[in-house]
Write a structure and sequence with these properties.
By secondary structure, the chain is α/β, with parallel strands linked by helices. Helix content is 28%, strand content 19%. The longest helix has 17 residues. The N terminus is likely disordered.
Length: 761
């Protein structure tokens, strides 16, 4: 055996990559002097203009750019369009200040990657960072220097549509992923032509919306805010995120876009953030609907004095000069907001290099290398939930195979929501990937049912598959029989086959913004299709394509479906990556970044809950539950592989630790199966006695370990004792003395356990 030190702890991640210290950029003092010079030249109207962002490049907007009344545009992309808009600002406006051009690059620009919830489940921050480097490279090739990502909102309610954009329920995993995404977008030098300024969003607690209803109110304690919802934002700021985006929701009665406490006291005062904050789309205008502003002028005043530096889309900041002239808004407040915007423009290199080389659109976008990175990310994002009797992986030499379901050959579904400039025609569907992988197989295909947004097929034809796309190895002689759309025909297809792969889930349009759901049931008649196909009795693999956990209690029953894969939406290379996993070229390694509820009544269900005062006894008076179970169907961190692993020999190298010290724990991991595979080893901690009740477990580290059959390795976790602290009732960060439990585990409810003692200061 040998020791492996490849584990992730925020205490070990070098988070000191400050944009202002990068050698390639202008020195900090030089930037501030240049800003001083511009501020002295600017009129009040030009200052306000730097804080205004409009969408598109219609002539009236370009006229305002020329007049110095616009500092940013969104939804302008493509080298020709961006250069044309930039040329107006740089060559025709009085002060020649460049625009900063923004766009939603949520999981890829043109090459689409798995949705963020899926890639977070890879527990592979290095590959996530590489994926965002590709996204930044493509976006900047199209003239987009500012990406409205990453979305780092912690979410505990899968009914919320925007859970698809984040990293799930855990603040530690969310913080690691936030760091990786910011680094990926911005690189080591955000002024580099292939780097983009990140906009970490939505600040803050947007994911805690009541009932999972998008844009809804949020009412949480400050301790919950600081221990769960703020950490990923803090991590992003430490990683150098140039901008943040304020959220739509109100927080404890104060809208996030007018919240001085979070935007100024915490963000600027405690964290020393010196970039700028942009409002979400029309969020300043919506302060009127929130009931905290009587008119547009008051809404603009409340937003800018709270700490929102740039107004998105609604143009309300054009009223700022009137507020200054009336004496209501101090010029110093306006100047500081302008300074922050100009600072990021300087750091991004826009004053020196405002234009994009049009040739890059042909060399940097949708390349074979980018597609390969997308495929790897997709491979690592598939979660194996169940594999009874080792149904998976399937044999590539299988003779007949039924591929069924409305998701199986729908290209748009593969991309998911917020797919940037991704084009559905380029997406590899599961049917295409399977066709190219299973050489010689006779494939019977039927959608079985269609969802409202999908186009039904009513033809019955026998076709020969075309050559595979260049991004995949193909099997052009595979015969595919395409049947009509009905459950009966899907059943007939299943009866003809040696095995069945059934693709069910949600169309991409049912997830994302403004796409919350009241139920987690399969839409349409998919449950009927599932039960009918399962009744045939053939080896059955259920592949779920969705942006949230769905109700699969029936499928998970031991007598119904032997194998279940959660595929989320995997992006452009979806079908190829799924085929790689289904046929064993790749062993699934992703883990769930959230707890999978059994039913709606459990929500919110999350692993890092408090124990409560009656946590142990099974009677109703102690559990408080009169419905089926308080446990999730699958816990956070859960996921199977095509082998088995054994955890042993937990060793606490530091049985007693000072609050200023480091906790060191090792454990042995052995591959006890007959296939190579990757295990995500997780490190959890619990403080037994503290001034405030602590979660039953908290993730504090993880490590991806790849082992050959029979191979063993020793995994080590080293975590700063300070990172194990918590807030007391006065919101002071403390590291309580006493006994702490630790687990080295495959998920949030299993593992081998030990203890250590934390000494007093």
């Amino acid at each position: 055996m040998f020791r492996l030190r490849r584990s992730w702890s925020l205490g070990l991640i070098p988070l000191c990559l400050c944009l202002s210290t990068l050698a390639q950029q202008p020195a900090k003092d030089d930037i501030e002097r240049r800003i001083d010079g511009l501020l002295q030249q600017m009129t009040v109207e030009e200052k306000a203009g730097q804080l205004v962002q409009f969408t598109g490049v219609k002539p009236p907007v370009l006229d305002q750019v020329k007049a110095g009344q616009v500092g940013s545009l969104l939804n302008v992309y493509g080298a020709d369009q961006t250069n044309a808009a930039q040329r107006v600002a740089v060559e025709q406006s009085r002060l020649k200040i460049p625009l900063i051009l923004g766009y939603d690059v949520i999981h890829g620009y043109r090459t689409i990657f798995p949705i963020p919830l899926a890639s977070a489940g890879s527990f592979d921050p290095a590959l996530i960072e590489q994926s965002e480097r590709v996204a930044a490279k493509e976006a900047t090739a199209a003239g987009v220097k500012w990406v409205f990502a990453p979305m780092v909102d912690i979410a505990r309610d899968p009914r919320w549509g925007r859970i698809v954009e984040g990293s799930g329920e855990d603040p530690y995993l969310g913080s690691v992923v936030a760091t990786a995404r910011v680094r990926g977008f911005q690189g080591t030098n955000v002024a580099d032509s292939q780097s983009a300024v990140a906009s970490t969003k939505h600040y803050v607690a947007y994911g805690a919306a009541e009932g999972g209803r998008d844009y809804n109110t949020v009412d949480i304690s400050e301790q919950l805010l600081r221990e769960v919802y703020l950490p990923p934002f803090h991590a992003a700021v430490k990683a150098g995120s140039g901008t943040l985006m304020s959220a739509f929701n109100d927080l404890n009665g104060v809208p996030a876009t007018a919240n001085h406490y979070t935007l100024t006291n915490i963000l600027r005062g405690e964290w020393k953030f010196d970039g700028f904050v942009v409002a979400d789309y029309n969020a300043v205008q919506e302060l009127i609907a929130h009931g905290v502003a009587a008119d547009p002028s008051e809404a603009a005043f409340k937003a800018i004095t709270a700490g929102v530096d740039m107004d998105m889309a609604d143009g309300l900041y054009l009223s700022l000069p009137q507020l200054v002239h009336s004496g209501k808004l101090p010029m110093s407040v306006l100047d500081e907001a302008v300074r922050r915007v100009l600072r990021i423009k300087f750091r991004a290199g826009l004053f020196e290099h405002p234009y994009t080389d049009p040739a890059r659109e042909k060399t940097d976008i949708f390349t074979a290398e980018n597609l390969e990175t997308s495929r790897r990310m997709a491979q690592e994002s598939v979660v194996l939930l169940k594999n009874q009797n080792n149904v998976l992986p399937l044999n590539k030499n299988i003779k007949t195979l039924a591929v069924i379901g409305p998701m199986a050959d729908d290209k748009s579904t593969q991309l998911g929501s917020w797919a940037g400039q991704g084009q559905s025609k380029d997406a590899i569907t599961p049917l295409e990937g399977i066709r190219n992988k299973a050489a010689g197989a006779q494939i019977f295909f039927s959608e079985g049912v269609t969802l409202a947004s999908l186009t039904p097929r009513v033809d019955t034809v026998s076709i020969t598959a075309a050559p595979a796309p260049s991004s995949a190895t193909g099997a052009p002689g595979v015969s595919v029989t395409r049947g009509p759309t009905s459950i009966e025909d899907a059943v007939n297809a299943a009866k003809k086959a040696d095995a069945v792969i059934l693709f069910l889930g949600e169309p991409a349009g049912m997830t994302g913004e403004a796409s919350s759901r009241a139920t987690l049931d399969f839409p349409g008649k998919q449950q009927d299709l599932l039960e009918a196909v399962a009744a045939v009795g053939k080896p059955l693999v259920l592949v779920l394509e969705s942006g949230r956990p769905l109700d699969i209690r029936w499928a998970n029953n031991s007598d119904h479906v032997p194998a279940i894969l959660q595929a989320w939406y995997l992006g452009t290379e979806s079908g190829n990556a799924l085929a790689d996993v289904l046929f064993g070229d790749v062993s699934p390694s992703a883990r769930l970044p959230l707890s999978w509820p059994q039913f709606i009544g459990q929500i919110p269900v999350y692993y890092n809950h408090k124990s409560t005062g009656r946590p142990t006894s099974p009677d109703r008076w102690h559990t408080g539950y009169q419905y089926e179970s308080k446990e999730p169907l699958f816990p956070f961190g859960y996921g199977l592989t095509y082998t088995t692993f054994k955890y042993s020999n937990l060793h606490i190298a530091t049985p007693t630790v000072s609050p200023a010290g480091t906790v060191r724990v090792t454990a042995d991991l052995q591959n006890t199966g007959n296939r190579p595979a990757t295990e995500v080893v997780q490190f959890y901690v619990h403080d037994r006695i503290a001034p405030t009740s602590r979660p039953v477990r908290e993730l504090k580290g993880f490590s991806r370990i790849t082992l050959a059959p029979g191979e063993s390795k020793t995994v080590e976790f080293s975590v700063s004792a300070n990172d194990l602290g918590s807030y007391d009732s006065q919101m002071n960060w403390i590291v309580p003395a006493g006994t702490y439990d630790v687990w080295v585990a495959p998920n949030a409810i299993e593992g081998i356990q030990g203890t250590f003692e934390m000494g007093a200061k």
